[in-house]
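Worked example
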Amino acid sequence: MATLSDVAVRAGGSLATASRVLNGSAQRVVGPELRERVAAAAAELGYVPNKAAQAMARGRTDVVSLVVGSIADPYFSSIVAGVSRETQSHDLRVTISESDGSEKSTLAVIANASSQQARALIFAGGAITSTPAVTRAISDFTTHTGSPVLAIGATNLPPEIKGIGVDDRAAAEDLAGMMVKFGYHDISVIATSPIVLASQLRTEGFTEAIRKAGGTVREIVETPLSRQGGIDAMNHILASPTRPQLVFATADVMAVGALAAVRTAGVKIPGDIALCGFDDIPTLADIVPGLTTVH
């Protein structure tokens, strides 16, 4: 197998020059004529660049660090699939981490991305929280790596983060308005921890719209962001002597669990109790009756 030294000898240049051409360099640039000679020599000898050496020379790796709330949630899975497809087209690779959105969890994933010299750090959904410590850590990351930090579906972000926003509050308000028009005024909410920003905004938007319309919010049941979390929360709601007219789950993965709990209890949807969710996950295509949700 050809080595970098072999390429340098064939090209008539130094080892350092060959490295700058094939591995890249954060500081030095090689002239076009010598660059062509090195590239031709590498091709003739079948030289394969060392990824670790390239990362060291360029000051960052080919890794894109993606942080999600829960890989089990189809909402996040679809984001993972999209990021993976795009990074492959640029000869990059993805590492996936889970975060509950807390300061501790957010700081941990930022530190991990920094140690990896990640090409980019992407937070999906409620996997990030904005605190002074997080803002400092993000600033340190961008300074240390020269790489961007992005967030999908998050709001109120530090200026260092580029965001692809989703107006969760307004969308939940619109959903609540539709439910009121259908005659639902007595509701309960299944939500995950308030530290997950997306769930918090959806809960606030939905409940405020219901109250403004003269409706009643019986309770907000906090549960893990999972199908089982939805089952447990709905079982709690069904145990009440009287049921609400409508249950709103702030994520479809919990709504699917809630639907399973209703069926097990022998309760009819939407005859005995109505249910709506948020995310329009692909799984819903196989759910009967169809779930009212936000795309």
Notes: Strands lie at 63-68, 93-98, 120-124, 149-152, 161-164, 186-191, 216-222, 246-249, 274-276. Residues 83 and 134 are 23 Å apart (CA to CA). Residues 197-212 form the longest helix (16 residues).
